[in-house]
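Q: What residues go here?
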């Protein structure tokens, strides 16, 4: 019980919020504090909750707890007994529908402790932060959509590049997330954690959503599903997944978007996104086949010098190179099959994917090439084929319920990746041009045994191997091949529950792969000097102790104390010399996360999530710089949210906070803290029509999505600014109104 008392000081996290912003969230915080500290309202709330238990034979055999349905509120999966770590959990579709999203990638903002931003145009992959990592565009955080990996190794822009702009949030059934390298099923890029998106098989109703908003925002989403036979006929996805009347189901969606954003140079974003899914069967036995096609084009306002904004020489939303931007395409064909019974289960999936990216960027302006400017083009054309299979055996181990799973994951990327010097998107020089073939394979085994009614163990072992082959067309001396392997043990111990409280210990080794060009290349493509090779695979090791409790009726709370050490740190190199990522020294991180979900009544709930992180390089004065701070490592993150569903009205409000963070290793330059409040209100008018209004950045706070310390030169004749600060501003107050039609 004592671990809950500090929540009375929750306002400390928001001390930097302006007084007028606290007016809106004051009621939410007051109710939250009153309920948690005095436990008065909870007594009434407890009488309003009912639980519906659904359990099949396999779930019983492996001691997996059933979902809990709280009457008149959203399904909530993160109760005691539903996870293998205090930091592991599920985000349901109800969470995504209650709160507004600026971009599709902001769905990951629902993962406690994660921050999603953007340092360029909205067609580019987001910038991610978690557990003191500047994850850049996806390094060290693995993302999958219906079993298809999103992260791109040896990407034109950054290692592990994870572009989620093809996601359709309204179709997401759930997000299974975990943090730390503790589970054998997670491989490359999953050191800090992973998120697995699962789409629906069907919709309750066909829908047409039409949205208009500030800055030329226009979106149209059309989606529907239909059974292909006359049997069954229930379109509800959860019913179709569990009933015996399952029938082949066809689901389709088209998502169209145009917007200009607040930028002085209109973004001109055009996006076309589509999904077609054919599925059959139940959650125990079934299959699905998906086809996805996505394309987007945009002009981007990249980060600009903070000094010019502060002096008034440049507008907050201005650009120094209006020809920056990008084009991208993605096509996926994937399928999965699953079967389970009392003896075990078998799951298999496979996919093929074609991916293209053209990205024009200019981060140093005129420092390297005053005559033409420093713009560069990053190009890739990629074909991916992959598959995975997992076999589980339900058994008795010395008289105890036990399940053993063995899995195989394999993937091949055939990549043509290039870096060109450009002016106004016109190329005039080739820096590098490479053909890369990269194959990764992972084999794992994991055992989950329930030893008694208060102790369970999960032990796993994973081995991954990688083979890279590169043909360097521009610099033939850089051609060659490389390989690597890594063995990763995993262990989780789960104790309890006692008094509706359980305890966790988790430990494991993880890894990320490095860019093949950095592993194989012998000559630096920009300087001509000898290159320093990096290993193909870089290891990490993490540990965590945690607790999850429902000792206070109506409150689900978890706390995790964790550490994570990496053998090498990947950082973004914001210059036109390479425009990619480069390795730095080893790092050590530890921190504390505290997540709370409070059900006040059948129609009102609150969330309060906080994360503190201490991040440092392992060696003082490493990387040729003074100090040991890790640039762009955010050390405090906070969220307070309230969601409401009452009659015809629903909606939510959330306030997100990130603390200041260092931009340089010695801490001489710091990025300011930021807090943003978003609001959603929806009213149902008829069974066919509802209206939804989103207010983003409700209090019009001026903040920066990202800041960097770097050299730059703003004109051909000006002086180079050493160790300057460039920023990408967050978007200002804006409104979006959606008319939602169902059929």
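A:
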């Amino acid at each position: 019980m004592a671990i809950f008392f500090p929540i009375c000081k929750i306002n400390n996290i928001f001390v930097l919020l302006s007084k007028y912003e606290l007016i809106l969230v004051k009621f939410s915080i007051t109710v939250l504090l009153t309920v948690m500290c005095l436990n008065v309202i909870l007594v009434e709330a407890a009488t309003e909750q009912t639980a519906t238990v659904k359990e099949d034979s396999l779930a019983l055999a492996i001691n997996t707890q059933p979902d809990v349905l709280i009457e008149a509120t959203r399904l909530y999966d993160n109760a005691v007994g539903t996870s293998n770590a205090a930091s592991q959990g599920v985000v349901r579709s109800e969470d995504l529908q209650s709160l507004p999203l600026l971009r599709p990638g902001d769905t990951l903002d629902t993962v406690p402790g994660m921050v999603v931003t953007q340092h360029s145009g909205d067609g580019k992959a987001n910038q991610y932060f978690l557990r003191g990592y500047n994850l850049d565009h996806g390094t060290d955080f693995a993302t999958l959509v219906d079993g298809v990996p999103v992260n791109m190794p040896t990407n034109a822009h950054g290692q592990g590049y994870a572009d989620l702009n093809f996601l359709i949030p309204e179709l997401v059934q759930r997000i299974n997330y975990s943090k730390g390298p503790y589970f054998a099923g997670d491989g490359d890029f999953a050191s800090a954690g992973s998120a697995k998106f699962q789409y629906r098989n069907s919709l309750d109703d066909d829908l047409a959503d039409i949205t208009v908003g500030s800055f030329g925002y226009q979106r149209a989403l059309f989606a529907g599903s239909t059974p292909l036979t006359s049997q069954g006929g229930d379109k509800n996805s959860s019913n179709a997944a569990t009933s015996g009347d399952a029938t082949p189901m066809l689901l389709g969606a088209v998502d169209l978007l145009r917007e200009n954003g607040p930028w002085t140079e209109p973004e001109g974003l055009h996006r076309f996104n589509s999904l077609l899914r054919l599925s059959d069967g139940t959650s125990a036995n079934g299959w699905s086949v998906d086809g996805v096609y996505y394309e987007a084009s945009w002009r981007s306002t990249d980060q600009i010098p903070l000094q010019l904004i502060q002096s008034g020489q440049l507008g907050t939303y201005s650009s120094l190179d209006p020809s920056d931007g990008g084009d991208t395409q993605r096509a996926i064909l994937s399928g999965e099959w699953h079967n389970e019974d009392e003896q075990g289960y078998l799951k298999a999936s496979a996919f093929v994917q074609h991916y293209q990216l053209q990205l024009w960027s200019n981060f140093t302006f005129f420092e390297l090439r005053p005559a033409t400017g420093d713009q560069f083009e990053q190009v890739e054309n990629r074909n991916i084929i992959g598959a995975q299979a997992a076999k589980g055996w339900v058994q008795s181990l010395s008289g105890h319920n036990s399940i053993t799973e063995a899995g195989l994951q394999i993937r091949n990327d055939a990549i043509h990746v290039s870096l060109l010097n450009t002016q106004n998107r016109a190329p005039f020089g080739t820096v590098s041009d490479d053909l890369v073939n990269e194959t990764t394979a992972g084999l794992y085994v994991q055992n989950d045994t329930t030893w008694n009614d208060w102790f369970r163990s999960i032990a796993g072992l994973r081995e991954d191997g990688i083979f890279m082959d590169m043909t360097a067309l521009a610099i033939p001396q850089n051609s060659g091949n490389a390989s690597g392997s890594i063995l990763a043990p995993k262990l989780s111990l789960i104790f309890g529950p006692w008094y509706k409280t359980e305890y966790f210990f988790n430990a494991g080794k993880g890894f990320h792969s490095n860019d093949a060009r950095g592993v194989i290349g012998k000559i630096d493509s920009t300087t001509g000097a000898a290159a320093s090779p990096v290993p193909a695979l870089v290891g990490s090791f993490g540990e965590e102790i945690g607790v999850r409790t429902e000792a206070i009726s109506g409150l689900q709370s978890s706390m995790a104390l964790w550490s994570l050490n990496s053998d090498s740190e990947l950082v973004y190199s914001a210059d036109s010399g390479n425009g990619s990522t480069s390795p730095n020294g080893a790092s050590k991180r530890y921190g504390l996360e505290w997540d709370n979900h409070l059900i006040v009544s059948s129609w009102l709930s609150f969330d309060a999530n906080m994360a503190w992180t201490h991040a440092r390089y392992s060696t003082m004065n490493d990387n040729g710089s003074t100090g040991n701070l890790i640039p762009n490592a955010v050390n405090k993150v906070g969220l307070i949210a309230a969601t409401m569903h009452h009659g015809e009205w629903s909606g939510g409000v959330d306030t997100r906070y990130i603390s200041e963070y260092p931009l340089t290793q010695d801490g001489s330059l710091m990025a300011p803290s930021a807090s943003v409040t978003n609001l959603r209100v929806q009213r149902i008018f008829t069974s066919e029509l509802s209206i939804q209004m989103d207010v983003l950045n409700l209090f019009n706070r001026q903040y920066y999505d990202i800041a960097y310390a770097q050299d730059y030169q703003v004109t051909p004749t000006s002086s180079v600014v050493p160790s300057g600060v460039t920023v990408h501003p967050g978007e200002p107050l804006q409104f979006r109104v959606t008319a939602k039609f169902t059929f």
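A: Context that may help when evaluating the design: Residues 174 and 192 are 20 Å apart (CA to CA). The first strand starts at residue 89 and ends at 92.
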